[in-house]
Amino acid sequence: MKVSTLRLLADARRAKKGGERAMAARQRTRLAELVAWARARSPYYRRLYRDLPAEAELTALPVTRKSELMAAFDDWVTDPAVTFEAARAFADDPARIGQPFAGRYTLTTTSGTTGTHGIFLQDARSAEVTGAMLARMLLGWLSVRDVARIARGGGRMALVAPAGGHFASTVAAARLRGRRRVAVLSVQQPLDELVAQLDAFRPAVLAPYASVGALLAGAAEAGRLRARPALVVLSAEGLPAPEYARIAAALGAKVRTSYACNECPFLSYGCSENWMHLNADWAVLEPVDERYRPVPPGQGSHTVLLTNLANRVQPILRYDLGDAVVVRPDACPCGDPGPAVRVQGRAADLLTFPRPGGDPVTLAPLPLATLLEAVPGLELFQIVQSGPDALRVRMRPAPGVDPDVLWRRIETRLGELLVRHGLGHVSVGRAAEPPRQGAGGKYRAVIPATAPTTHGAAIE
User: Is the pTM of this model over 0.85?
Assistant: First the structure.
């Protein structure tokens, strides 16, 4: 661990020990520094803040959105050598996954659930803060017994990630590849193959997407999965509360979760009470209504505004993240002083298909979604389970892309994945309508045959 990361971790421990007041003090200082930096180094923010006083309160700063920041990319970044054209070319090249962009930045992409694909950079300072927050998270999660159990398991870690794409988890995995104690397993392979690989590797720490964790718990309950990790870290999606206890019992593991995003990979970490505690000394999350007015604790928000206090190359200030959350109105019983939230806008919905002459096959949404995210020329999509054995794809081609050529690529890739999972009988059709936004403003990538509702309206 670098000296600077150790210093950050020491400060993070002092902030947590000092409680809410110590975290708030660091937040105020870092916010003032970030706003001054953005005004001085980013032409975009210089224009956006030109009519504001030098020491404006956070709530006085204008809201920013992904579509606007991507459109103003070259003016938004604080490094004049970074351009959208170069970042886009880097992101489109799968051979560059895991390599530093421009020799010094981690580049990740988002899937466009708000209707706009995002390209995000993380500088060295932000990476060090991420490392310190990861260490703080693990120190809060693991008991001496947990550490001993992980050590007995050889410290082996299995990451279940997309096979391609510039995702934060994939970038991290690429850097770890080649170390015998770390396995990077594809989320897109059939469940039986994933189970066999986990049983052969026997990880002490397992980090899958939440929906994949639910499928692995089912495999363990059926006696097909024998691997018993000490710690399971679920990410990317939400699950019904009873599912976490089921996964823990089935895998014989401590289960924890994290809520983060490409814009702020160290945003929060889950506790034993299934709340997400914000790293409030380095990030600000403002729950707001449709008109960006503050929402009180205990009441569900329409969206949240994110401020990342660590990243200087791409300042994230009052950024509309699009997730609906509720803030805990009282102190969390776990004792963590960080503000506690639950995310209402992310749900992991499994797709189940009947199979002639065999057991039904259940797919997690991530293998399908990540497969299409890598299709060139596909700006936005939705995969809708329109029947027990039928899928329809709503698509939005990128400007200048032939829709018929694009559809053939989509149909081929989905068909190949379904065949690998023993679902060659499932039909794939092209929808006439474009992707539809949900009630929270996001585009849901995969919609099961029976989709739940959010805020009283159908998500579809």
Answer: no
